[in-house]
Amino acid sequence: MIKAILIFNNHGKPRLSKFYEHYNEDTEQQIIRETFHLVSKRDENVCNFLEGGMLIGGSDYKLIYRHYATLYFVFCVDSSESELGILDLIQVFVETLDKCFENVCELDLIFHVDKVHNILAEMVMGGMVLETNMNEIITQVDAQNKMEKAETFIFQSTRQDR
Amino acid sequence: MALKIVKGSIDRMFDKNLQDLVRGIRNHKDDEAKYISTCIDEIKQELKQDNIAVKANAVCKLTYLQMLGYDVSWAAFNIVEVMSSSKFTYKRIGYLAASQCFHESTDVIMLTTNQIRKDLSSPNQYDTGVALTGLSCFVTPDLARDLANDIMTLMSHTKPYIRKKAVLIMYKVFLKYPESLRPAFPRLKEKLEDPDPGVQSAAVNVICELARRNPKNYLSLAPLFFKLMTSSTNNWVLIKIIKLFGALTPLEPRLGKKLIEPLTNLIHSTSAMSLLYECVNTVIAVLISLSSGMPNHSASIQLCVQKLRILIEDSDQNLKYLGLLAMSKILKTHPKSVQSHKDLILQCLDDKDESIRLRALDLLYGMVSKKNLMEIVKKLMLHVDKAEGTTYRDELLTKIIDICSQSNYQYITNFEWYISILVELTRLEGTRHGHLIASQMLDVAIRVKAIRAFAVAQMATLLDNAHLLTGNTQRNGICEVLYAAAWICGEFSEHLENPAQTLEAMLRPKVATLPGHIQAVYVQNTAKLFATILKSQEGNADGTTSEETTQLMIDRLPLFVQSANLEVQERASCILQLVKYIQKLQQKDVEVAEEVSALFAGELNPVAPKAQKKVPVPEGLDLDAWINEPPSESESEDEQPKAIFTKEEPKHSRPRHTEVDEKELAKRREARKQEQANNPFYIKASPSSQKVYQDAPGVEHIPVVQIDLSVPLKVPGLPMSDQYVKLEEERRQKERAEKKKKEKKKRKEKRSGRGKKHDSGPESEEDITPAHMVDIVTEEMPENALPSDEDDKDPNDPHKALDIDLDKPLADSEKLPVRSHRAAEALKSPVEDAEAENAGPQESKKKSSKDKKEKKKDKDRKKSKEEKKKKKHKHEEKEEDLLGGEADEPVGQSEEPSEVAAPPTSTTAEVSDLDFWLSNAPVSSNTQEAPTVAAAAAAATPTTPTAPSVTAPVSEPDEPKDAEMEETKSSKHKKKKQKKEKEEKEKKKKKKHHHHHHHHGDGGVEESVQNGTVEEDEPLPPMSNYCLLAENAYIKMMGEDADQVCDIQGNLQDGSQVVVSVIFENKCSSFLKSMEFNVLDSLNSKLQRPEGSGPHDGLTVPFQLPPGVSNEARFVFTVQSIVMPQKLKGTLTFIVKNEDSSTHEKLDFKLHFTCTSYLITTPCYSDAFAKLLESGDLKSSSIRLEGVNMPFHHLLARICFHHHFSVVERIDSCASMYSRSIQGHHVCLLVKTSAQTVSIDAKCDEPTLLGNVLDEIKQTFSQC
């Protein structure tokens, strides 16, 4: 099970947070902060696993993260997930973002956090991995966006994003 | 109205959308909070509007703010509104917001049930998808209950996109509403073989997640998963399955054996590191579950270790980390194979990555030996000095102590060295583990008598330099060490060189700044020291020293009498009075030393940590009974049980607590001060006493220089541990030299005799003798300690509720709640219910009809032989299906439990299927031996229609498991058991090569034994159906001895076949071969012989017996009538082959076919049983057994085991049992017991058979 997925930048600013278990807002912020502290002080070329300890869950849980340019992608998972598998999943996630946003950068995540959520929802559901095939994910995301466009075309014409 | 809408949309144009909000926040970096609060006000305005677009926009913004940590639960209702919009765009926004901020206690969730149901059944798949995604995040028990049925329907949706989401969300539903698991499980299982890989993966995911928590319920799925594992190419699925198998193998070792080969293949073939790693992990789990004693698996271990070494050596830090992680798992069971990679692991200790260093530290635990302990610890000590973060350093500290103290200080050869290591560790600044060091010091000093003098000297120095440890408040963790030091100096004060000096050190005013519990120990131990000093000075004519000491005590103790700590105060005042009294006596020149030291006489022995728990409760003592009536609630709450003897406990938790509570304490203190100040009745504490309590520089104003050095301190006078390493080296060398000398001498003496002994070569473990006679005092245990190692699980674990038996057929009550108008056709019986639940795809229906057909055939057993043969083929076909992996559908579940004539229900079907599947496990692992045996089998057992190839699936239903059960049950009777085990093992190897089609399906025996014993924990005595058949006295005379043991059992498949298993055991020192087994046929029973052989030819036993080996062969007999027991005469001829000669020998025996052997354990459900009794075609009979002196469950187990019955129902001391003969006679028993009398009422449609069976039962119990 995946317990939480966090994306934050090099300064610890949250760009996306998805908790698959309920915490109140303050705890969530604290978790993000502490995770950032743990992750950010690690060198570039060390392993991508961290024992989070008391942070979330307990000893059964691990933080698995990847650092891309200005962003950290952190997954908090328990022992039923394969460590290397999750690393691959992060890669798939980022590549999917890259496809959907065309050369994704932090700004895309800042302004379109809802879209990122929608993409993530096609990959992970309720803490369990739903789909790992990038093409399948993109197909579904595109289909939904198309539907949305069709609706917006009718009901809202003026405003455009960005 | 229209105007309003237009106005709304115009307004909307000027609303901020999410992008504007984000931009705004970025532009207001300085006053972000203020900006956001104005935004929230705007949002609130927007939410008040009717326009759903505006609302959705607002909710979208709220979702963003939620991420930034703002509580948006106030907008929950608006979120629900947006969720229920008909537009997908808004719906999605609503569900996203809900998934981010709804949780179980959100009350508006109740309102969503119908909306979600509507969305779930929406024609648009994305509406459904979005609802499912949202629901997965905020599903509550109520929602789960109300929607379980809808979601279950979606599991068979036409779109795989919906199916996979529905399958995944079922896990959440199960968690919240465990009752749904059983009804939904069959369909979930179907999804394992869904054509869409995504759905399949989801189903694997869910079942793995379920099985991880309650693995035993999912063992029956192992064959299915095995098939998936060998067929799937999706690495995700493979990883999940392999992980799942890792969880299952500990429960079923046979599974492990079966797995090793395919896993090894995967390890060799896969290029995906993640898959490779998981395979290695599971192989490790398998090896652990198989434990040792499997020589042919050392190759697998070697393979794993090799692969892991490659991972660890990889430049990718991730692989390195994982390699170490997996290595530590191997370490537990196969430390030797890991030890050879010590170099690599020590190297990892120097890695710059902390995660990796920690993992390497874990491994170090298993690396140490007597030889290298000092060296490794020395290295760790260097790391301690270098370590920058406290967490890592603390980790190092605990590891050092762990490593040294493991298995009762097994690897420590020099305790002086260890003590000095401990002392060196006290120099760590700010460690939290002071208590750990302290308890080690205490433990060593108490348990290693030889070290006490040294330890006391060290501790005295520590006490003398206490200011170095306590000087800095940050170091308070370490002052725990003083607790140990003071106690050791006091308790073993006879070893002190200068007790007066130590006493002085312990009475320094600075001591008063220590924590209370340490002060208390100080005070108490000064008294001990005092006693020692008095005693040593007793002989002296001039009593000034003792008088001086007394005076010192009297001078210094008042400081402690003033202590705020109750314990300290009490002890101090007691001792002060005592000393004053002694002073008086001294002035009168009375000798007091004897009396004073009598206060502390007697030695303290270490007590094992669990000793208290293990004291058995005396008979007749009810600990739960009230001695007095319980006091009222409120009172009892205050009186929390206080631990008296667990001084250690509070210390463990202290450091953490203080950190957490510090703020709160300060707050409370503030509040209390306020209150006190305002309270006229409160007498304010005088400032001076408060000073003592807190942190004052002492009463006597001694200027204390605070030393705070970052450089490791050198406590003067303390030897460095390094010194010992050198000393030890020298000592060992000397020892070795001496030994060599001795050996040389010996060799010289023995030169004329045998060849040379093994050279001592490199120093081996045993050669290192401890430096001094170390006598590790074992810990005391109460005399009749109970072995109790209970592992208590967390009762709050939500997964506990999911520990549900999934193989039981569904009951009527177990239906998912369906909205009333849907449940139009009421279902009549559990059978149909179960079927209905299965209904989904047509396959299962087809299957059940097929089953029915088969059962019909079962019914008409007695029909012509031709038909019989056909049926047999059918059975074989089914067998092939199951094993060959061609079967499309899972077996079981669809069979009908209530059909009386066909009792094998799904439960047994599944259990035996599993057994059945597992039974060919040894085929793969024993391939080397197989061909020869197979050849022999093929030649010798002509009853086997085709010579079985090695891979041919063969059944071997119950015996191995039987043996395992006995293993677990009987810890005694080892000898017997071992023999049996051996037999079983042999059986396993052999059985598959002959007669395989005959003993398929009689998989009920272990079932029945379980039936009788499930609830009881008491061990059952081992039982065996094997009885001695014949022993050859003649051969014995010649020093040879062969005996046979046999077990006769009916065959389920064939109404007229009985299988006799005979174990041949060669007890002599010669080789037995060419064994021939022959039985004189009677009219009723005939030995089945290969076609073409005459009626008097013997059967060749398909093996030879080397000395001391036993093996089993099976022979099939055809029986006409089964109502009477009968005896058959037989002969075994064999050749005894010695080195120089060989002789023909003969052994006569009698085979006793009891009526019991015609019975086959067949489970029966109570309703079917009742129907059977009601039918009235059964004749009854009964017996009474007197003087049966055994627990009822043993009795039942015996009947089950020896007479092939199964328990239908058991109520207290009454049980109904059922069995069926190979020709389909029903036998029902009602067993009652009172005192020592057992009465058995029996019913059967064949009275003669019944009479005989009852006689046999009687006989069984008369024998024991």
UniProtKB/TrEMBL annotation, chain A:
Q: Which keywords annotate this record?
A: Cytoplasmic vesicle, Golgi apparatus, Membrane, Protein transport, Transport
Q: What is this protein called?
A: AP complex subunit sigma
Protein's organism: Oryzias melastigma
Q: Which GO terms describe its cellular component?
A: AP-3 adaptor complex; cytoplasmic vesicle membrane; Golgi apparatus
The record's annotation in SUPFAM superfamilies points to: SNARE-like
Q: Does the keyword tRNA-binding apply?
A: no
Return the Pfam families for the record: Clat_adaptor_s
Q: Where in the cell is it found?
A: Cytoplasmic vesicle membrane; Golgi apparatus
Q: What does this protein do?
A: Part of the AP-3 complex, an adaptor-related complex which is not clathrin-associated. The complex is associated with the Golgi region as well as more peripheral structures. It facilitates the budding of vesicles from the Golgi membrane and may be directly involved in trafficking to lysosomes. In concert with the BLOC-1 complex, AP-3 is required to target cargos into vesicles assembled at cell bodies for delivery into neurites and nerve terminals.
Q: Give the record's GO biological process terms.
A: Golgi to vacuole transport; intracellular protein transport
Q: What is its main location?
A: membrane
| Gene3D superfamilies per the UniProt record, alphabetical | 3.30.450.60
User: What membrane topology is annotated for this entry?
Assistant: Peripheral membrane protein
Similarity comment text for this entry? Belongs to the adaptor complexes small subunit family.
Q: Which residues form the AP complex mu/sigma subunit domain?
A: 1-147
Answer yes or no on keyword Membrane.
yes
